[in-house]
């Protein structure tokens, strides 16, 4: 069994099409077919069911695929560990985050990291499917909203809860609702709103909660642009409902925020990474910078999460006391 044959097999598993796989490997289709046949003879079992032009993995193929993924991940981790011996201050860090405020938050948090590690290549990918990016080894960390951080032994990911935040109504200080300290969803449903589109995660939570309260949110303007939302609010065209962290990122002297009290209007944000992925010092060095950045936003991590992150980062860090708002 040759390493090259396993590469061919893994590519065919991902494509499930001989022509596309051979093109991706830059070899002829007969060559690919021959090598797969040799591999099947070597393991003593069919790896693919061939039905016309369609192919699917057999049970034996699924077993080999799982082991191939482990083999290639181990090789990649070994390369990273060897490279780390020579390039402590170089390398790359790749982070995935849900579109919208999480992408903004992560991007802003990396400013200090870029200053401390100017030779490191930094990449932030905005995606609705960060788990696939993790699975395909395209990113080191993912930031996402999670309903549950309880893990089973067979899960390939680790989820560390960072914070649970509520939603706030944001408008000019002169808005009549700013006379109240807390608001209900009913209070803001009648006011002109500038909101994210319905495909946005934040808006999904809002719509679901409003439906539970037999309310309908009819924004006067919808946009995926965070800058535009806050620009409209500053111009007193309307108010908006956003996560508290997004308001903290876009604070302005003319704006004010009030919490919307409802059990459904909160969400858990978590840092997620693969259990089996080797993390070098360049990647781990982001963790203390992230914690400090969240503290600047008055976001305090749960003690258990702080301890897990510090153990993972292998660096001492004195936790600051976050002042109540």
From TrEMBL:
Family matches, as Gene3D superfamilies: 3.40.190.290, Winged helix-like DNA-binding domain superfamily/Winged helix DNA-binding domain
The HTH lysR-type domain, residue ranges: 1-58
Pfam families: HTH_1 (PF00126), LysR_substrate (PF03466)
Superkingdom, taxonomy of origin: Bacteria
Entry's Gene Ontology cellular component terms: cytosol
Keyword Hydrolase applies: no
UniProt-recorded Gene Ontology molecular function terms: DNA binding; DNA-binding transcription factor activity
The keyword Transcription belongs to this UniProt entry's keyword annotation: yes
Record-linked CDD domains: PBP2_LTTR_substrate
Swiss-Prot/TrEMBL keywords: DNA-binding, Transcription, Transcription regulation
PROSITE patterns, alphabetized: HTH_LYSR
Family: Belongs to the LysR transcriptional regulatory family.
PANTHER family on file: HTH-TYPE TRANSCRIPTIONAL REGULATOR YBHD
Name of the protein this chain belongs to: LysR family transcriptional regulator
Organism, scientific name: Lysinibacillus composti
